[in-house]
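Deliverable D2.4 — example input (structure tokens):
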């Protein structure tokens, strides 16, 4: 399959994640969680903007009709305006467990915002992570539990199937998803990744295929909706971390990467580690859903 690398943005993120295409603004957004920086890129003008974040920003989404973001910082959900650094907290998450933080997430096709937590402290049990849903009325519910590093969250084109993984298990799961209530159920194995290839961020294309960035595997893998491997794209960086479709025609494959955990020698051998890569593909993605809050937030002075 023909994948053409058309751009490499040299940002050298320690942990690039959470990438998505903002259809309204025609921009690429992503975060360096550990480096605490938020990025926005115009792929046509090739102009990059960036902001220091007040907390570690794990994942985020645009809010329908608004100029601020819905954010999952390391310790909870908040509205966030990067231009002014204004943060309005909605919910603190797992404040009784300092060994965890929020990680991967996004909006489902009905406009709810989801984020899962991960264990980052070796001194606590490795199964303390959980998947959370911030509903449109701003209430929070907890779903999948017993997780170590939550990742790969995405939905089928119709929104009735949810994909998710616990990265160390090297397996992506699928769930039946009730679009009316937002309840996942009936977990099944979707696919198993190869040795040394750990499933990280995923996205779903318009044809229903699942695309997964595989940490340590230097690749993005395209799976059929039955979990069969269809294509493998070798990436410039060993630690591919998240993937999205974007561009005016939604045919650009956008991949984040990371140098987290590498020695100086390993970084020297992987000069593209932490950069963002943009490929032109013969495939097409889906518009990224926005958070559909039931009421507009009034920021005040």
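Example output (designed residues):
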């Amino acid at each position: 399959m023909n994948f053409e690398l058309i751009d490499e943005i040299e940002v050298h993120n320690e942990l690039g994640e959470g990438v998505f295409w903002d259809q309204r603004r025609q921009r690429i957004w992503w975060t360096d969680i550990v480096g605490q920086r938020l990025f926005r890129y115009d792929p046509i003008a090739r102009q990059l903007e960036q902001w220091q974040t007040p907390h570690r920003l794990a994942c985020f989404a645009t809010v329908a009709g608004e100029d601020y973001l819905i954010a999952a910082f390391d310790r909870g959900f908040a509205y966030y305006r990067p231009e002014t650094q204004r943060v309005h907290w909605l919910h603190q998450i797992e404040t009784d467990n300092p060994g965890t933080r929020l990680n991967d997430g996004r909006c489902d096709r009905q406009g709810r915002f989801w984020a899962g937590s991960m264990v980052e402290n070796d001194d606590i049990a490795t199964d303390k992570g959980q998947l959370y849903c911030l509903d449109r009325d701003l209430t929070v519910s907890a779903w999948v539990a017993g997780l170590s590093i939550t990742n790969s969250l995405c939905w089928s084109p119709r929104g009735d199937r949810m994909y998710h993984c616990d990265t160390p298990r090297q397996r992506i799961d699928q769930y039946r998803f009730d679009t009316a209530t937002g309840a996942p159920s009936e977990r099944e194995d979707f696919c198993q990744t190869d040795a040394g290839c750990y499933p990280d961020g995923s996205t779903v294309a318009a044809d229903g295929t699942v695309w997964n960035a595989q940490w340590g595997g230097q690749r993005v893998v395209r799976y059929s909706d039955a979990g069969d491997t269809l294509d493998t794209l070798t990436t410039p960086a060993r630690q591919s971390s998240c993937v999205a479709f974007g561009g005016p025609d939604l045919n650009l494959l956008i991949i984040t990467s990371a140098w987290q955990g590498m020695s100086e020698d390993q970084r020297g051998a992987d000069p593209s580690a932490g950069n963002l890569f943009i490929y032109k593909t013969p495939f097409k993605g889906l518009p990224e859903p926005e958070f559909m809050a039931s009421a507009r937030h009034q920021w005040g002075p």
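The mean pLDDT is 96.
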